[in-house]
Amino acid sequence: MEGFKYSLDKSSKKNSCPNCNKKTFVFYVDTETGNYLPTDYGRCDREQNCKYHKAPPKGKRGYLIPFLTLKDITDKACKLVDVNGIISMIPKSQILEKNQSTCFISEWYLKTSTINYLNSESKYFNVGETSIINEVKTIKQPQPKKPDFHSLNLQDSLINQYKSNLPFDNLTTFLIHNFTFDEVQKAISDYYLTGTNHFWENSTIFWQMDTNEQIRGAKIMLYNEHTGKRVKEPYNHINWLHKAIKEPGFNLCQCLFGLHLINKDYQKNIAIVESEKTAIIMSIFLPDLIWLATGSKSNFKFELLKPLKKRNCIAFPDKGEYSNWSNKAKELKNKGFKIEVSNILEQSKFKKGFDLADYYFNIN
Q1: Confidence band of 1 (pLDDT split at 50, 70, 90)
Q2: Which residues pair with 78 in a beta bridge?
Q3: Tens-place pLDDT, residues 219-255
Q4: What pTM was estimated for this model as a whole?
Q5: Residue ranges of the alpha helices (H) in 16-136?
Q6: Distance between CA 279 and CA 273 in Å, rounded?
Q7: Which of 73, 53, 55, 67 is nearest to 130 (CA)?
Q8: What DSSP line would sit under 135-192, residue for residue?
């Protein structure tokens, strides 16, 4: 298969962003050696607030063209007669390399010419000052690594520890202050919401269980018990259970949060939000839908949404993300998905980043 020599690191590792200093930065990696590029090359996951993305330049692609003659006609142009007898006037700036009977001509020029080039050898040329050029390479497809799973025994153990060590985690405390005890208990039961002191006292475990009820991962986050907002200062309080229990080789292959619920009622439509907390809250506000969460803006993608292909779905992106999710939904529809994207938040007067739970708390 073909792919670029340098691509964003596909592991879950995050680094400090050179722009916002948050630990949300994904490096570019050399797909041939596995080495990282200099640390200013990468993309910040804070796509709305930071937007930093420095990609390796692609360089200029040229194709090898054999010729019969190649002569200067002005100081800026050449006359080329190729081996098929086709005569072309070519800007010198588009001849990237010249040999005795061949030359490399830029793809940009060849696309508008009559020269046959598609089956010719090609390579990339550095036309700037950087020594790093991202070029298309034939990449050997690695054997896919099987996902790892947490055991149900581990989940049961942590849930039992949580039940025997009140007080509640901060998020559950917030929910109890805003909904009835029975409503909160049902949500906790449906999503296996679990309090923990791993990493931070009274934080919350969000289990990612697939349609076979296999636990693909468990995200740990800390919330403010009064506001229900995630604690982001002095740093973003997000981590993973496999790190807490010291399983460094754990192969995290995420699924949608709440995915295990879709088999419980085939008549209900599916609603998709970004935040796990929002999915839980909306399952209380609007229980006639099955609420799932992507866990991040970028996880609204085919790989995670594939199990929903035959279901009727509606997505509720956070304010500011409507365009991105709407474009992705169009791609998914072309693949047979039945998915719509709501613009209810995009049309509101709330600030960017506002989510559906915020909206419902404001109107209720």
Answers
A1: very low
A2: 72, 90
A3: 999 999 999 999 999 899 999 999 999 988 899 999 9
A4: 0.68
A5: 107-110
A6: 6
A7: 55
A8: -EEE-PPPPPPPPP-B-HHHHHHHHHHHHHSPSPPHHHHHHHHHS-HHHHHHHHHHHT
